[in-house]
Specification:
133 residues; mainly alpha
Length: 133
Amino acid sequence: MPDFANPFIGTVPRKLTHGELVRAIMLNISAEYEAVHLYLAHMDATDNEDARKVLYDIALEELVHVGEFTSLLYRLDPVTATKMEEGFAEVRELLASRAPGEPAATDAGTGQPAAAAPAGQLTVGSLLRAPKP
């Protein structure tokens, strides 16, 4: 949790090295995803439509921040960019290799596609596909 009483929290007494900056950007990405999770959890915990609408909008804004930080990370660390693209390519290949007509993997607990959220529940992955509340 933030330590608002301490005005020096999070400050560094020197300039970051390049490696430290790369790790700091990775931490920022993680914090943005954590914020998305928090706002969606609060949205799920209320029936107040005004609050739900605002929380959803803020969660989407945090995903924009993830994109901004990720773009900066790729620019600062080409190795990370290359490895991430390798991961994207592996998933594309894996999903393309599924035989035509073969059903997608399902979640054993729900029987729904593994990437899908239960009806009415939003997740980070479903934000872009889900209708706004």
